[in-house]
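Now for a sample.
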Amino acid sequence: MAFADILVTLIVMPDSMSYVFTEAKWISGDVGLVTCAGVRYLNFITLAAPIASLLLMSVDRYLGVTFPLDRFPNFRRGKIQSVAIWFSATITSIPVAVTWKNFKHFPNDTYYICGSIFQAPGKEYRRILFTLLVPLMYMIPLLVISTLYTWFVFSCAAEVFQDSLL
């Protein structure tokens, strides 16, 4: 997770700052197409890795608290977890590499912008779809984490309630 945070500092933050100062202008041609997709792909990988880390940590904590005497040796190996985190972040970010392209700026066509095909000028229905699909990357892990913790709290509360009745 620390490595992912360093990558966010080195990749995402400079890209975000350049986006503001260049008004989203991008390089034209094949180089611009490759760099647009590559930079956005790296952005999403570095943002997906900490989310996967938190998800894996919550599952590990759940298993450790719910089954305190079981070891789960294969699940708790750090190397396996690191590979799983980065592999899942890489795989879930592939659609970003495919959907980000260079577009000519719509009003005057004098420069290119780097954007998703869902944000292409004149494609408002795609923009709505993009707005609805992107939060799923964050909502699915949140739902899993919330479900695990809720399940644990209710199971502990049920045990305490049953013990108080006896």
